[in-house]
Amino acid sequence: MSESVTVPKSSAGTLSSLRAFTLHLWAFVLPLLTLTFLLTGPHEWWVALLWVAPIWMLVYVDVRSGPDLRQPEEGAPAWPFDLQVYGLVALQLANHIMLGVMASKLAVWPGEELGKTFANFIAMHAVCGVNAGYSGIVVAHELVHRRNRFQFFLGRLLLMFVCYEHFTTEHVRGHHPRVGTREDPATARFGETFRQFLWRTVPAQFKSAWRLEKVRNGDAHMKWHDVRMLRHRVLQGVVAQVLIVAAYVYFFGWLAAFFFIMQARMAIMLLEVVNYIEHWGLLREGKTVTNFDSWDTDSWFTLHTLVGLSRHSDHHARASRHYHLLRRFDESPKMPSGYYGTVVLALMRNEQYIKAATAELKRRRLGPFRDGQAPPAAASAPDGPVGAAPALTA
């Protein structure tokens, strides 16, 4: 998709490449915290539960963090930031392996150790699930937009380890062309609660990705036994995910496989709540994606811990732009806080989130308020055709 924006000016100036590289090292905090938790486990029940506290500390820092309005330095070398991404991939894969190792050491049968197992499960579900969502999937999102085949494969691999590989197809070839339209299952509608969005978007995205891969391989009505299905990336992902779960059972046991599936469930929920807050209530007016079609946040903590995800409007304007070069725009709607705080708000106080987001859309005259009129009563209804994607090709 061609870029439809000009380089914005900012009174805050630009951020040098060296400074940007240093700040993006914050992205290693959560995966390193997770690795430490897994390497030192299993823990006594009360110690295990204490490991959940750092997650809330990250939320607190994000809510309290100030804005970073600086623009990136154009022409910055890509290799240092690519090394950061490779490091994050290696850490995430190590965390997945260590999850199995730690879970294999926990008691399975009832007894005095069962309470310890349950407490470690609670902590592992929170720490590993949040890390897989906020680090693993966010890094995967960056990589599946890359044109380098190896980087693209690494992105797919990370998504396989959260049992959501079809996101590769649906996000790049489904969501990006259709963002802000009724045909996009990943765009949350005005007034839609997160629960409504989650139940609608998860099956619709899988169906759309499955169909897009059929179209890419030559026939939208291709039968499952067609030899071309061997090139079907979504099918490849499903098979790989089943094999990964089977490998956990074989090497680490049934309990480890259960823990793995539960951390994947947590990561998927976090991915979808991020989808929910990134486009909630926005409705694209024309064929070209603009800076009005995505929510942004100016939080410096989100910007540097989530590899540039916060500057989502520029990402949609030019999806191939690497995370360290993403720019901020004044005109895009702004979230109530950074991603961490807004995600918690959308999950735990959804009505309050909807009120805040509605006020921001009304103030900027976006979404249903773009004509200065109140939204129609039916705007909040989650019903409607979302599963059928247009015939897009790779």
Description:
Helices cover 57% and strands 1% of the residues. It is an all-alpha fold. A two-stranded parallel ribbon has the order 1-2. The longest helix has 31 residues, at 114-144. It is globular. The protein starts with 13 loop residues before the first strand and ends in a 30-residue tail after the last helix. Mean pLDDT is 90; it is low at 1-7 and 376-394.
Structure characteristics:
394 residues, two-stranded parallel ribbon, 1% strand, disordered N terminus, disordered C terminus
Tally of domains = 1
- N-to-C order of helices and strands: EHHHHEHHHHHHHHHHH
What characterizes the major β-sheet? 2 strands, parallel
- Secondary structure tally, helices: 15
Q: What percent of the residues sit in helical stretches (DSSP H or I)? A: 55-70%
- Indicate the low-confidence ranges by residue numbers: 1-7, 376-394
Distance N to C terminus: 12 Å
Task: Report the β-strand fraction as a percent range.
Answer: under 5%
How many strands? 2
Outline: globular
Q: C-alpha Rg, in Å?
A: 21 Å
In the sheet with the most strands, the strands line up as: 1-2
- What is the average per-residue confidence, as pLDDT, rounded to a whole number? 90
Structural class of the secondary elements? mainly alpha
Topology of helices and strands:
Blueprint: E1 14-15, H1 17-23, H2 29-39, H3 45-50, H4 53-64, E2 71-72, H5 79-104, H6 114-144, H7 149-160, H8 167-178, H9 194-216, H10 233-252, H11 254-279, H12 300-305, H13 312-317, H14 339-348, H15 350-364
Parallel strand pairs: 1-2
Helix pairs in contact: 2-5, 2-6, 4-14, 5-6, 5-11, 6-7, 6-11, 8-9, 9-11, 10-11, 11-14, 14-15
